[in-house]
């Protein structure tokens, strides 16, 4: 979650003080205002379907045998594959010996209840060759046979790629293990935290700090086709959207605006960024072309706050958050602007919308009834489902296949910020299998990368 403390909010001046309800939204594109700010009524009822709370909806996990790939590096590779698959809740990983050569003992595997089995081994040291075979135990046939060769320093990535292959062959959709998550690393006291742009593998390994922490940093967003992240930085006490090149470490301001720019998201083809920028007492949504730097205004708020824009996967529409109707709600409009239609009608106030890569769902944060909820709805506003709730749960980001959401969960704090914790977790879109991602610091604002090339 992108928490904005009272001190940090002051950096935005009169713009935020005018809109307590959307203060944090204006700063970061996320709803993170103290709960008391939302005590003034709820959204009017509308045409949306009745809310559904999903609890432990799931399919039976697939029993699969993952053997040890050998001593040393092979053992580590097996461990990562096991962790990847087991962590989905869709596989029941079983240990056991499966010979890397020849045909497995299908009768023995069936007796153990296995439906699939992997055979594999890791060979070499400086350069490692990892061989893998995937067997359908029920049908008694090989589904996949592949060998991977790379520097031994890339052993974790080989393990993630193998887990992706198993996931795809068994479930019929691409995996998401060979991916990364950009996030905000947080250290220090509750109200004076140092924030740094950071990067890690999707399982929390290979953490890497990208910025030094001198300035408040929020809301990283991955470019879907380039090794590039957009984020909000308060550098030189002027909040603006920056682009960070992951290969070179170079940073540059995105677009020139008279006011504050914030809440960036890339277009599906990576050529544009949609963002919010303050204008007078409100904020509007703009599209910035990365090649030319030209910007185009696509909403005219008339003093309202339009923020948190996100393209649909086909680039034809944008979902965004606005208080134009009196309270923060979700709207969909054409990507060229115009024709905005409200889609959120549940009890409470909505923000932080993000479109699933599949195009079938929009995730959101909702505040009401004394707490935060993380949910999904259909793009027309029907079928709203709450996945998880808490003191603060928000900032959803879909994995590349749309099956899992990363999000931020924060706890309440006592006097002087005691007891406060901020971390990143994942949850399946059906609402089951919520799991934390371990990080070396506090963490918030997760942004899932596309699949690695």
Automatic annotation (TrEMBL):
Biological processes annotated in GO: cell division; protein import
Keywords annotated in UniProt: Cell cycle, Cell division, Periplasm, Signal
Gene Ontology cellular component terms for the protein in this record: periplasmic space
SUPFAM superfamilies reported for this sequence: TolB, N-terminal domain, Tricorn protease N-terminal domain
NCBIfam families linked: propeller_TolB
Similarity remark: Belongs to the TolB family.
Function field: Part of the Tol-Pal system, which plays a role in outer membrane invagination during cell division and is important for maintaining outer membrane integrity.
PANTHER family per record: PROTEIN TOLB, PROTEIN TOLB HOMOLOG
Protein name: Tol-Pal system protein TolB
């Amino acid at each position: 979650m992108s928490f904005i403390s009272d001190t940090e909010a002051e950096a935005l001046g009169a713009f935020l003080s005018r809109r307590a309800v959307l203060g944090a939204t204006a700063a970061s594109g996320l709803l993170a205002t103290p709960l008391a700010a939302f005590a003034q009524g709820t959204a009017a009822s509308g045409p949306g379907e009745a809310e559904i709370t999903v609890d432990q909806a799931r399919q039976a996990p697939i029993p699969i045998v993952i053997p040890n790939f050998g001593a040393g590096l092979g053992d580590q590779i097996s461990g990562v594959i096991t962790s990847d698959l087991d962590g989905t809740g869709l596989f029941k990983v079983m240990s056991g010996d499966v010979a890397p050569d020849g045909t497995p003992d299908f009768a023995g595997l069936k007796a153990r209840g296995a439906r699939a089995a992997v055979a594999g081994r890791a060979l070499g040291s400086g350069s490692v060759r990892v061989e893998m075979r995937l067997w359908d135990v029920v049908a008694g046939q090989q589904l996949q046979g592949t060998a991977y060769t790379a520097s031994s320093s890339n052993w974790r990535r080989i393990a993630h790629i193998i887990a992706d292959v198993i996931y795809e062959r068994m479930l019929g959709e691409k995996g998401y293990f060979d991916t990364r998550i950009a996030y905000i690393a947080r250290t220090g006291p509750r109200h004076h935290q140092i924030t740094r742009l950071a990067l890690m593998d999707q399982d929390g390994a290979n953490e890497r700090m990208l910025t030094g922490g001198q300035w408040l940093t929020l809301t990283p967003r991955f470019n879907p086709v380039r090794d590039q992240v957009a984020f909000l930085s308060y550098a030189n006490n002027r909040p603006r959207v920056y682009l960070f090149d992951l290969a070179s470490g170079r940073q540059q301001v995105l677009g020139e605006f008279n006011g504050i720019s914030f809440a960036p998201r890339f277009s599906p083809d990576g050529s544009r960024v949609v963002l919010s920028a303050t204008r007078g007492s409100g904020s509007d949504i703009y599209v910035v072309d990365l090649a030319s730097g030209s910007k185009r205004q696509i909403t005219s708020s008339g003093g309202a706050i339009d923020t948190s824009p996100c393209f649909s996967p086909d680039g034809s529409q944008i979902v965004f958050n606005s208080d134009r109707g009196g309270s923060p709600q979700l709207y969909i409009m054409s990507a060229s602007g115009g024709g905005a239609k409200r889609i959120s009608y549940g009890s409470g106030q909505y923000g932080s919308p993000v479109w699933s890569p599949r195009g079938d769902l929009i995730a959101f944060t909702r505040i009401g009834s004394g707490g935060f909820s993380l949910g999904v709805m259909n793009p027309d506003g029907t079928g709203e489902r709450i996945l998880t709730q808490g003191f603060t749960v928000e900032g959803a980001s879909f994995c590349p296949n749309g099956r899992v959401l990363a999000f931020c969960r924060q706890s309440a704090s006592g006097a002087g910020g005691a007891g406060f914790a901020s971390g990143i977790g994942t949850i399946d879109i059906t609402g089951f299998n919520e799991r934390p991602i371990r990080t070396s610091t506090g963490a918030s604002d997760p942004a899932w990368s596309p699949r690695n090339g």
